């Protein structure tokens, strides 16, 4: 019999599988995707947010625990479990040596990501390289990997202990199990239900694009909800950013993100602004714009910049709509020309230009304008002008399984003896809402390793107990 069955194929699942194998357990990993699409959303990641008290290789200066915690507290609005959040934060300070041993390499941040040089460690080759390194290491250590093996349901005893997983190819028993197969962000029916119908009669969830894998359907999350597992999180909350409206339905990844928001203004389809584009550094605010866009009419918005912004942000895969004048730009993107021009001119008149510096919270701001633009406010007055239509791009959902520091799945407050969870399926314990760059990988790495350790321990205990029974 298998000691540890890991269900999932992304960062958290691989961390669990590697850790359990290092602890001496036999491990089988089930990945729903075919080999070429393996890795879940992790294949689209770039970095890991890391606590450190002094400069460490690719990380400059220091990023102490309390600052990391305050950054997380700010974006979540306090909807977070402080004990588990601090557990993740402390783990992030010591995981990179382990990652390197499994083939992950790091590099300094490149132009366009320098705001993160103190807080985030970037993967050489991105998330795809990280995933490939972990799979190579898993094979070398003897982890059995089965692709195209989605799990339909679990077999549990009356106490919530794992017995077996059911797949289309048969029943798989194991002494313990780690669930790390994502949220429900790829399940469009569930997204529609979670977001419901708004006051305009729209169903916002129907207009979402999925930044990552199409395989995160939430099958086992729903199964466990129906079988009494303890749940945490709001189904409408998640990591949701503004991405190019021309992006594919699935797997658009990082290259479809629109990163020029803080350098211009954003208007909805009524050609009016609706939020402060310069509230804070982009890595701390990029993940609010998906939800903001989801609340707008038609779930669409337009990021507007002029020639002065070109070269100051990571260019997306699709070029912006370009025009020599503002009225021409309005016509090209289908907005009311008079209202659009009035919005831009009102904003321009409100700008108070100081010393523009996109690397700091500068003194360029607006006065007597609602909503205000707090930093980096410069008139949009230098052609050519550009517009990027954006829609909500969901990365992962926060509805998940409630855990404690052991990563055990809980039923009526009682932890399972041998069923554990990591990654997106439990991230809602730390992320009640909001997001800050790299923290999803921090959560997945920390709880993947915790779940792998605990699953190996539970499996080996059960193995020993079974051997004793046989001897008796």
Write a concise keyword list for the protein shown above.
472 residues, oxidoreductase, Succ_DH/fumarate_Rdtase_cat_sf, 2 domains, elongated, FAD-oxidoreductase_2, Flavocytochrome C3, Chain A, domain 1, FAD, 29% helix, FAD/NAD(P)-binding domain, 6-stranded mixed beta sheet, 8-stranded mixed beta sheet, alpha+beta, FAD/NAD-bd_sf
Give a topology summary.
Elements: E1 2-7, H1 11-22, E2 27-30, E3 47-49, H2 65-76, H3 82-92, H4 96-101, E4 106-107, E5 120-123, H5 126-141, E6 144-146, E7 151-156, E8 162-167, E9 170-179, H6 188-195, E10 209-210, H7 219-226, E11 231-232, E12 238-244, E13 265-268, H8 282-285, H9 289-294, E14 301-305, E15 321-323, H10 326-333, H11 337-350, E16 351-352, E17 365-366, E18 385-397, E19 400-401, E20 408-411, E21 414-421, H12 439-471
Parallel strand pairs: 1-2, 1-9, 2-6, 9-21, 10-18
Antiparallel strand pairs: 3-5, 4-5, 7-8, 8-9, 11-19, 12-18, 13-14, 14-18, 15-18, 16-17, 20-21
Write up this protein:
The protein has 472 residues and is α+β, with helices and mostly antiparallel strands. The protein folds into two domains: 270 residues, FAD/NAD(P)-binding domain, CATH 3.50.50; 155 residues, Flavocytochrome C3, Chain A, domain 1 (Alpha-Beta Complex). It contains twelve helices and 21 strands. The strands form five sheets. Strands 1, 2, 6, 7, 8, 9, 20 and 21 form an eight-stranded mixed beta sheet that branches. Strands 10, 12, 13, 14, 15 and 18 form a six-stranded mixed beta sheet that branches. Strand 1, helix 1 and strand 2 form a beta-alpha-beta unit. Helix 2 crosses helix 3. The longest helix has 33 residues. The protein is elongated and about 75 Å long. 53% of the residues are buried.
